[in-house]
Design goal:
globular, 7 helices, Four Helix Bundle (Hemerythrin (Met), subunit A), mainly alpha, about 55% helix
Amino acid sequence: MPFHAPPATDERTLIAGFLRQQQDAFRAAAFGLTDEQAGARPTPSALTVGVLVKHATGVQRGWLASALAAPGRPVEEHSQEEQYAERADEFTWTDRDTLFTALATYDEVCSQVQDAVATLELSTPVPVPQAPWNPQDVEAWSVRWVWLHLIEELARHAGHADIIREAVDGATMYELVAAAEGIPETPWLKPWRPAVSAGA
């Protein structure tokens, strides 16, 4: 993940670049964490880095389904009870969860979203999903709107992940990105390294 989205001369490439930038932010926030740390709640929030990775996966999966089905609506394969259970699991880091598995699923969905950004017609109408938080006076958004909304949604939660990660072990975004990308140390940028225990 570079520190900035790459320049672009066309809209589709610009959307893909900014979307990838926010997708990568979750990988940086989770970089070097143990499964236990991924489930840690060091702030008053119930959110954890691992939960945010799971939620970012679910959010992208849901909007991707809407974009792929446009101009129709996606076929819902789960009952309302199953949907509630899936959402509850999305916001819970259980003993069965591992960061490796969560990130593998996340990466798969991120790749599917990027493939759709590259191929779907941006102006295709996307019916507004029925939900109490969605407007009742709008019939459809567009695929373009969906991608921009995903950038907004991911950026908001990536900020949450940054704060929680810093509360877990003091690591901040720049040093995590430097470590993940193998950027050499400079006087003003020191790549993150795991703390060495006193007995080591």
